[in-house]
Amino acid sequence: MGQGMDFEFSDDQRAVRDAAERICQDFPDSYWLARDEDGVFPHEFHAAMAEGGWLGIAMPVENGGAGLGITEAALMMQTVAASGGAMAAASSIHMNIFAPHPIVVHGTDEQKKRMLEPLIRGEQKACFGVTEPDAGLDTTRITTRAVKDGKTYLVNGRKIWISTAQIADHIMLLCRTTALEGCARPTEGLSLFYTPLDRDHIEVREIPKMGRKAVDSNTLFIDGLTIPEEDLIGGEGQGFSVLLQGLNPERILIAAEALGIGRKCVRQVPCGRSHQFNLYSVAFCGLRSNISLSLSGLCSTQKAPDKILRSRRSRGTNLSGTSTAIPE
To answer: Is 190 inside any structural domain?
Structure first.
């Protein structure tokens, strides 16, 4: 019989988790409560993660990153989410971890230096402009158009539910360069750009929402935005496949963040003697069985992202089904 796969984390992976946890300890529940009340982006936390080198955890070493893989990135994001910051903390740096990978895989050396290095150093922030009001979950139905005019593209359209656009310097923007009806397949005719968020041509309107107040969500109205051809990532019309280099690892990171939040919730729920009334609370004790079941479920899925990645590697595949996915 063949030897089974080892799902245990390595010493280096545990070191990543411990280092991230030490940074998070400097931002207690009171910090995140204040950010939830005032709605201010957690710039201090973002800066601390950048100073520690963690914004480039899966970025190339030659561009100032750590050159680690999605497993390490998932462990880090799970640790961040398990702190008092939950989704506010995770969302404040999430874009840096997954979204730049189209640049890593398909960008030129000049693009990697120009686009990745300021993000890794924490000098710039970016947002991810894909979702549109009328396209729903079908990315191939987006209608934001980028029309080539010499060495530039002229862009008009709308995006919705775009996180961090209030404070972003740049945007990863998916557009149609060929109308859908002119394509043999829906996934054709899309192009991906990474370009400055020019507020003279992009109106950013914040969307009121419940929760995660410190990390803004927005509607973007793009009117006459000019993008130089040097900001095109990969080939024109290849944006859908290029985009997957960021979206595929995102799924793993979000799963890891959800697990981190779940573990934080289990630790926070009181069970036993009520300090307020100096007696055992029937309501709290009634939650015991549910808490135990939740904890059991979380423990059983704790390493799910790692198992997915390792099982894919054992089959000779990776996140995107190509040989150019996020490095491990």
So the answer is: yes
Query: CATH number, domain at 183?
Result: 2.40.110.10
- Tokens coding 85: 């910051």
**Sequence letter at residue 312:** R
Side-chain-side CA neighbours of 91 within 13 Å: the count stands at 24
Spatial distance between the Cα atoms of 131 and 88, rounded to a whole number of angstroms: 20
Q: Does the residue 15 lie in any domain?
A: no
Range of the domain at 164: 126-240
The reply to whether 215 falls in a domain is yes
Number of independent structural domains in the chain: 1
Bridge-based pairing of strands 190-196 and 232-233 is: antiparallel
pLDDT at 313 over 50: no
Q: For 195-210, what is each residue's pLDDT tens digit?
A: 999 999 999 999 999 8
Global pTM value: 0.84
Reference 307, options 42, 38, 74, 45; nearest CA is 74
Q: Is residue 285 part of a domain?
A: no
Question: Using CB atoms within 10 A of its CB, is residue 84 exposed (0-12), middle (13-18) or buried (19+)?
Answer: middle
- The closest alpha carbon to 198, from 172, 229, 164, 222, belongs to 222
Helices 86-98 and 70-81, interaxial angle, to 10°?
A: 160
Residue whose structure tokens are 């029937």: 282
Beta-bridged to residue 11, according to DSSP, are: none
